[in-house]
Amino acid sequence: MFLGQFQYTLDSKARLTIPARFRELSAPALVVTRHPGETCLLAMPMARWIIYTEKLDSLPMVDEDSALLRRMLYSAAEDLRLDGQGRILLSQRLRDYAHIDAELMVVGNGTHMEIWNPEAWAEIEHRFQDKEFNRKAFAALRI
After folding, report:
1. Mean pLDDT of all residues in the chain?
2. What's the rounded Cα separation, in Å, for the pair 6 and 62?
3. Sorting pLDDT into bands at 50, 70 and 90, what band is 27?
4. Number of C-alpha atoms within 13 angstroms, CB side, residue 48?
5. pTM value surpassing 0.85
6. CB 110 within 8 A of CB 44
7. Residue-number span of the structural domain to which 96 is assigned
8. What is the dihedral of CA 115, 120, 121, 122, to 10 degrees?
9. From CA 70, how far away is CA 63, in angstroms rounded?
10. Which domain CATH number covers 112?
11. What is the pLDDT of residues 29-63, one digit of tens each?
């Protein structure tokens, strides 16, 4: 399970070192694409990507929103192999989408990870601190 958050800096070739605790879950490859609901990147092991795309492909092709979602996720998806040091190369196109320069956050989200611009991630954390949001979220979980 992908848990935790880690701040990283891309190297001079735009490679991201996957956090050590995520490498075993990610090997040998990750699929990285746009996140459908946020301006960040979605990264998941190929086995999870296959499950994800089965659900995506079950959406009706004639539905305009489903077709757009499928186009945007598939067209941006990249199958990235981890190198010997556990790094992946993030394309300029994906970095531009998520507004990532050199600094970034790698955030575990259970079945996948998200790759964020640090300022955008700080905004997410700020939203979570809102007491009304927390009350509603926990009520929905029935904890």
Report:
1. 91
2. 40
3. confident
4. 19
5. yes
6. no
7. 5-141
8. 160
9. 11
10. 3.40.1550.20
11. 899 999 999 999 999 999 999 999 999 999 988 99
CA pair distance 143, 138, nearest whole angstrom: 6
Locus of tokens 């926990």: 138
Give the pLDDT confidence of 92-112 residue by residue, as tens digits: 999 999 999 999 999 999 999
Q: Residue 34: what are its φ and ψ, rounded to 5°?
A: -65, 145
The dihedral sign for the CA sequence 16, 22, 25, 31: negative
Residue 27 token pair:
């090997």
User: What Rg, from alpha-carbon coordinates, does the chain have?
Assistant: 16
Structural domains in the chain (count): 1
What count of residues does the chain have? 143
CA distances from 46 to 7, 26, 78 (A): 24, 8, 11
Across 73-91, average pLDDT: 95
Residues 39/120, Cβ–Cβ less than 8 Å: yes
Show the beta-strand stretches assigned E in the chain.
5-9, 15-17, 29-34, 41-45, 78-81, 87-89, 103-108, 113-116
